[in-house]
Prior knowledge:
By secondary structure, the chain is mostly beta strands. It contains one helix and 32 strands. The strands form eight sheets. Strands 15, 20, 21, 22, 24, 27, 28, 30 and 31 form a nine-stranded antiparallel beta sheet that branches. β1 and β2 form a beta hairpin. The two termini are 52 Å apart.
Amino acid sequence: YEIPLRLVGSEMCIRDRIMTNSIDDGNNTYRFDIEVRDRNGKDRAKTLTVIATDALVATEDIATQNDIWSTKATLYGSLVASVTEMNFRYRALGSNDWMYSNQAVLNNKIFTSQITGLEPGITYEYQAMAGTVAAKETKQFTTEAPAQLPNAGFEDWHGSSPLYIYKSGGEMFWDSGNTGSATLNKNVTTYDATIKHSGNYSAKLQSQYVALFGIGAFAAGNVFVGKFLKIDGTDGILRFGRPFTSRPSKLVLYYRYVAGTVDYSTLSELPKNSKDMGSIYIALGDWPHQTFEGETDIPVLVKTKPADRQLFDSNSSNVIGYGECILKESTEGEGLIKLEIPINYRSNRKPTDIILVGSASRYGDYFTGSTGSTLWLDDLELIYE
């Protein structure tokens, strides 16, 4: 079919036509290719889909991938006629059993409803409903995959000085301050085969004063997602963060903490002879990537040198989700105990990277803490619910 078109009120000379790909696909669905060309030779092509139906609502695509999490999603529908009861039905693709959402929220003929309790990494189909009558269209979405952290049980190590937290020939995900402290003949982070939750090892983060020939500094036992990039005197330049696009609800881990008495301090907030504090924090965000001396795609560049200090900012607008636990007391007993750190989301944006840091001395970046502080970590797991 060719149907001549004319733009009313336009001075352009237009030669238009509508060509039907299929008048009817058997489901009362009509698709039209629309081609528009002006006298300057510029053109545009679009496909128009028309559904002949007596349904009162239509099923719409989910607005953005930000609306699809691992265990929840926001569904979209639109009004075709006046309706007072709107909701959705949905099911895992291939299932025969429909589940139903709560009453939808209407906003300018678009209505939405958030469904929860979904399974991660699963494809679902859904239909908008007017009361008990479903719309003709069925749409699909796939929930986020439940990504986990590599080497989360700290089983893989290699090297000696420095000691690295991945197997020889493998890919680095975790790093520590060992690259800096090893220049002064010490590793501040090691593996421990005696205190652990499962497997062969845990990570032992032991704060120390590292020195050689009278030159040294206090160094916190630490582990972080990223890479130690460069030694700057007795200071470090680090990459914080690795690519990560899932949105977990909390971090679960096993730990033991011994809080020592502060014997090195540059801060009035934590003076000498006070009790040291450890910390564990996780952040998901979409930081603009940086480059430093050949290292590309750095989410957050950290510098500990006092004259040029540049640290992670948990209040940055690029932080999408954040969770933290400040360890103010030593744990009881000699074993590891379970810890859950909820992740609070400030936006529904999808992250591009993850940052995770554990430290036996919270203010180690300021060379403040106790040489008696030690933190053990094992079996980190991201929970999606």
